Amino acid sequence: MSELRIAGIAKWALIILLAVILVMQAAGNRSSSTSFEEMAGAVRQSTDLSPMSEGDNQMLKRLYGIDGAEYDGFMLYYPASSMGAEELLLIRMKDPAQKEAVRKAMETRRDTQLSNFEGYGVEQTAMLENSVIDVKNNYAVFVSAQDPAAVQEAFRKAY
Amino acid sequence: MAFSTISFLFAFLPAALILYRIVPERARAVILILISLVFYAWGDVRHLPVLLFSMVFNYVAGLELGLLKQKGAKRRAKYAMMLAVAVNLFLLGYYKYTGFFAGSLARMFGRAPSSSVMPLPIGISFFTFSAISYILDIYLERARYSRDFVQVAAYICMFPKLISGPIVQYKDMKGRFTAPKMTMSNFLAGTQKFVVGLFKKVLLADALGAAFAGISALDGMAAATAWLGMIFYSLQLFFDFAGYSDMAIGLAQILGFPIDKNFDYPYISDGIADFWRRWHISLGRWFRDYVYIPLGGNRCSTGRQILNLLVVWLLTGLWHGAAWTFVFWGIWHGGLLILERFALKNLRELIPKAVRIAVTVLLVFIGWVFFFSPSMGSALLWIRQMFGGAGLGIWNGATGYFLRTNLITLIAAVICCGPNLGRTVTNLSYQKGRFGVIISVAVYIVLFLCCISYIVGSSYNSFLYFQF
């Protein structure tokens, strides 16, 4: 096969590859049209909330350093006792540009909790290490619980 | 990664330079590619595939185009060139303009724009234009295609110019990556340019940016405050971008690739055409060589020349950003150029040079209002406030506060807009005897130390042109 033919085939193969990647990226980048209530309901049902207390915007600011008023909606459950590590935060973003700030806030909160329990709270540390942060285009969830995979599955299904 | 960060200055750059220096000259281009990919991926690794695609695709497309040219298959070569340019433009458009056009269409049909926005790969406007230059230089027979992937990849991704230019053309860089030489004279001259750039960015642009941010945050502005804000931003933009360009050019020179200057004291221009010969020179040259001249340039009727200029300036505006404010800004400059070239041609020489400079600066600064405003509405509101539209009078407490607290920076910035200060320091280096040299070296060391202490003591400020 001539060099020209190989270059031509390689060029078209790259164009097809690009098209596939961009289509996949666009699909992964889509915003969910699921309402916040619907999403919150699905997430709430997927885990045991009894070891947690429901938090308001003031608690969100205190624990995560973000203002709930700047988002479309949020649902916060934080540990009911000082020895608890169970936590759940669901946020719906107004703008995908808020994604990184939310991700950072969630990661910081998880790291803070990890350092709080490091050295003496073996179970809590394990739970936090297994916790899940899942940030999509307009929704994000952070869950530290016995069954974080179930919450993530419910979140992704409802997205 | 930005040049004005501690991690770049004291970790990445020394490690990269040592690695680049110790390998044999023939292996330097490969090392340059690896260093550049780490540099690009440092901040956000997600977009690395876009850069890798651009490198591989343009190498393959250039190879095919070159072979077709060699065979004399003109028609097939033309189609191959058009497809390669279209793929590059599609990639740029997909990331940069999808949201803009989809949003504009949605508004046109009375729908809410979609909230789904593609994150923009940093530097995509710059490396895509470099890649298109490679394809067009082969097609226009300004340069021969390269069989060596390393040559093409190093040209597209070399880190000094990867994120914010200058947009070097392939015909000027061809063959330079075979065995780049690091010399002491290049190292010293490059370091000097780098320090000057760091000074412009850290000590001038960031301080001016803080002043502009303060004024922008006001609910309403007295006329003089709005003028002051416009001046702060205009100076910030210049020192930010010219500072970055100086650093990029300095780094490229250290690595053995001298690049032409990208700014030449634009705020002492005596006309809009003169301004564009001094501001972002590499972009102006790119549009001239690959759009304006192929469209017919000056060698056609007046009507066609006007159309060509409007096309170029519409594209220049759009290149800067996907927003109507940038479109207007492009047309503003295009319109002024047309006026200057065709309507005021004879009148221009009758006006004293100082007046010409003042009018040019005023028109350019007004253009920047559209550049920094998030929407046409807010740009017009700012201009209205410049003429007392906020009802706060000509001068109020805020005006005095912002002027007083930034007066030294403002004076320093105005002095640095002209060539005299730089010339004085350079002349010292060439004076007979050692005294001048010692003073000159001391000036650069003190400047560098001042920049470092400022960087350590302040939060990171990104470069304005990263968004493009």
Detail the poorly predicted runs of chain A. none
The dominant shape of chain B is globular
Q: Per DSSP, what share of the residues of chain B sits in E-state strands of 2 or more residues?
A: under 5%
What strand line-up does the widest sheet of chain A have?
A: 1-2-3-5-4
Helix amount of chain A: 40-55%
Return the string of H and E elements of chain A. HHEHEEHHEEH
The best one-word shape of chain A is: elongated
Strand tally of chain A: 5
Helix segment tally of chain A: 6
Cα radius of gyration of chain A in angstroms: 20 Å
Give the arrangement of secondary structure elements.
The complex is a heterodimer of chains A (159) and B (468).
Chain A: H1 3-28, H2 36-45, E1 52-55, H3 57-64, E2 73-79, E3 87-92, H4 99-117, H5 122-129, E4 132-135, E5 139-144, H6 148-158
Antiparallel strand pairs in A: 1-2, 2-3, 3-5, 4-5
Helix pairs in contact in A: 2-6, 4-5
Chain B: H1 6-22, H2 28-43, H3 48-71, H4 74-96, H5 98-108, H6 124-139, H7 149-157, H8 159-162, H9 170-173, H10 184-216, H11 223-254, H12 272-278, H13 281-295, H14 302-320, H15 324-343, H16 353-372, H17 376-386, H18 397-405, H19 407-416, H20 420-429, H21 434-457
Summary, kept brief:
The complex is a heterodimer of chains A (159) and B (468). Chain A has 159 residues and is an alpha+beta fold. Helix content of chain A is 52%, strand content 17%.
